[in-house]
Specification:
The complex is a heterodimer of chains A (308) and B (269). Chain A has a domain of 187 residues: Rossmann fold (3-Layer(aba) Sandwich). Chain A is 33% helix and 19% strand. In chain A, α1 packs antiparallel against α2, α5 packs across α6 and α8 crosses α9. The longest helix of chain A is centred in the last third of the chain and has 18 residues. Chain B folds into two domains: 42 residues, no CATH class; 220 residues, Orthogonal Bundle (MetI-like fold). The chains are: A alpha/beta (308), B mainly alpha (269). At the A-B interface, β5 of A face α7 and α8 of B.
């Protein structure tokens, strides 16, 4: 039994004021919740990593990543190619093993939550020998599997293509089928590994709207790995930058939804993150009027100069 | 601008043309051959005229001999195919799926593969005598290797991305095999089947020369003894027809099982 519970019982019995008990509880709460009781099933999974490291031989791709992601949050991970963002995703998905450090979902190991995690890859990865509806129903068990698959296809707007072969669909349609396939399992953590990279700009915008609405509807935790900063700012509540194996930027996005790219605050935030990703110094332009920051928006980033 | 009626009509003409044109050359050769035989340029000892071949064919058909010989030959071929094919499929699946099995068995199988089955005939006669077993052994051996090699290759070249995806969706073991690996290997396996069906007839022809009491080979060899060249040609024609039939069968299998493959889908005219 945890210290807090024993103390709470004793202190409560002794009738000490709540403030004292609260103070004791704060001291006792560990940084790393070891024996956290499994919570009631909320739609999202909370993700915690501690000193997560992954190296391939000599190369340290991830070096001591500490992350806390709340349940139901939408987090985007950006960075240059090869920075390790996809590696982080694969570790979370259980497709790869960490070299060091630990990873917990709702305080438990990944193995206990395998059925709650679904990943959407860069390419649709549909089985070409199964029809679309059978692809969506992959891994589903029980009598109502096809009905649920059909419902998922309706959510992504492809119910009429249920009996086609995947090869006759366009790239955007195949990615939508892959999204339906991921969602039909009611995941609590949806991992998206640059899923829209191969799509054209218009399809990408439609997919943004689709993913956002499905996320708002279902409430799962979403982790989107992308190289497109505007996509990250459009979709996520939090943007992480992975650089040199560590988290170099952790920016909250306070913009209200639905977000418009023409919004000044959107553009500013995107510019800031992009500048940081590219590590180029910004030149302050003359006559730039000071704009009121939204509440809670931290100070603008100082100008960085890196000697490469 | 072509009239609205011209489009479907020209499509029909084009389709008929595609069906008829391939037969023009064989037909021309046939006519030339008949002409040469009738005019005496071609001696019947060298090559009988097409008409007498047809007559011989008809006579054999009516007497029931043809049906009997064809049935015996086909039974031999298919039995040998079944034995060799199923063995090849099993071993191919085994060595393709398990690295240990590959290390253990593959080099041995490759060594045996390089021995031409027909060169083994004297040994086969010594081991199995001259009855059905010898012929079945030869046919099985010939059929084995294309299916084995292609099954092995098919299993190994299944898209690893698909396997990773299926694993992440909770598929494992037999379900993974049945839903992802086997269908992925199927195009390769069917190529092996087509090759094997071709070999099956070639090996059978030679195997039937060892010694036989029935079968198309027996028919042909008997006719040769009696200088019935028209019956010999009937035999050859039968082999060709049966080979073509086997190929059509393989193609039909491919078209059914590989309906999903973009390479096999019927394009709109």
């Amino acid at each position: 039994m945890h210290m807090t519970e024993i103390d709470g019982a004793v202190l409560g019995f002794a009738g000490l004021p709540d403030s004292v008990r609260h103070f004791r509880e704060q001291l006792d709460t560990p940084v790393w919740p070891v024996d956290a009781a499994p919570p009631a099933r909320v739609p999202g999974l909370a993700v915690q990593t501690h000193a997560l490291t992954r190296h391939f031989g000599e190369r340290r791709v991830l070096d001591g990543i500490d992350l806390h992601i709340d349940a139901g949050a939408f987090v985007a991970v950006v960075g240059r190619s090869g920075c390790g963002k996809s590696t982080l995703l694969r570790l979370l998905a259980g497709l790869d093993d960490a070299s060091a450090g630990s990873l917990a979902l709702d305080g438990e190991s990944i193995a206990r939550h395998r059925s709650d995690i679904r990943i959407m890859f860069q390419d649709p990865r549909l089985l070409p020998w199964k029809r679309v509806i059978d692809n969506v129903a992959l891994g589903l068990e029980g009598g109502g599997a096809l009905a649920r698959a059909h419902a998922a296809l309706e959510q992504v707007g492809l119910a009429d293509r249920a009996h086609d072969w995947p090869t006759v669909l366009s790239g955007g349609q195949r990615q939508r089928v892959a999204l339906a396939r991921a969602l039909v399992h009611r995941p609590r953590l949806l991992l998206l590994d640059e899923p829209l990279g191969a799509l054209d700009a218009l399809t990408r915008i439609e997919m943004h709207r689709l993913i956002e609405s499905l996320w708002q509807q279902h409430g799962f935790t979403a982790l989107l790995v992308t190289h497109d900063v505007s996509e990250a700012v459009a979709l996520a509540d939090r943007v992480l930058l992975i650089e040199d194996g560590a988290v170099a930027l952790d920016e909250r996005v306070w913009l209200p939804r639905p977000r418009s790219r023409r919004d000044a605050a959107f553009a500013r935030l995107e510019e800031r993150v992009l500048t940081r990703v590219l590590c180029t110094p910004t030149a302050p332009s003359a006559g730039e009027a000071p704009v009121a920051e939204p509440p809670g928006d931290p100070d603008p980033l100082p100008v960085f100069r890196f000697a490469i | 601008m072509p009239s609205p009626n011209a489009a479907p009509r020209s499509a029909l003409v084009a389709r008929w043309r595609k069906r008829v044109v391939p037969w023009l050359v064989p037909l021309a050769i046939l006519l030339l051959w008949q002409l040469a035989s009738s005019l005496g340029w071609l001696s019947t000892r060298v090559l009988p005229e097409p008409w007498s071949v047809l007559v011989a064919f008809w006579q054999l058909l009516r007497s029931g001999e043809m049906a009997q010989h064809v049935a015996v030959s086909t039974a031999r071929a298919l039995t040998g195919f079944a034995i060799g094919g199923s063995l090849a499929l099993t071993l191919g699946l085994l060595t393709g799926s398990f690295k240990r099995a590959e290390t253990l068995l593959d080099s041995t199988i490759q060594m045996i593969r390089n021995v031409p089955p027909l060169a083994l005939i004297p040994l086969v006669i010594l081991w199995f005598g001259i009855d059905e077993t010898a012929k079945l052994f030869l046919v099985s051996l010939g059929v084995f290797f294309p299916i084995y090699v292609n099954t092995f290759h098919g299993i190994r070249s299944v898209d690893p991305g698909l396997i990773e995806m299926a694993r992440s969706y909770g598929l494992s073991g037999f379900a993974l095999y049945r839903q992802v690996i086997l269908p992925g290997a199927l195009p390769s396996i069917l190529v092996g089947v087509r090759f094997s069906l071709g070999f099956m007839w070639v090996i059978l022809i030679v195997a039937e020369t060892i010694s036989a009491q029935a079968g198309i080979g027996y028919l042909t060899m008997n006719a040769r003894e009696f200088l019935q060249t028209d019956v010999v040609l009937v035999g050859i024609g039968l082999y060709a027809a049966l080979g073509k039939l086997a190929d059509l069968l393989a193609k039909g299998l491919e078209r059914w099982w590989l309906r999903w493959h973009p390479g096999y889908q019927v394009k709109a005219a």
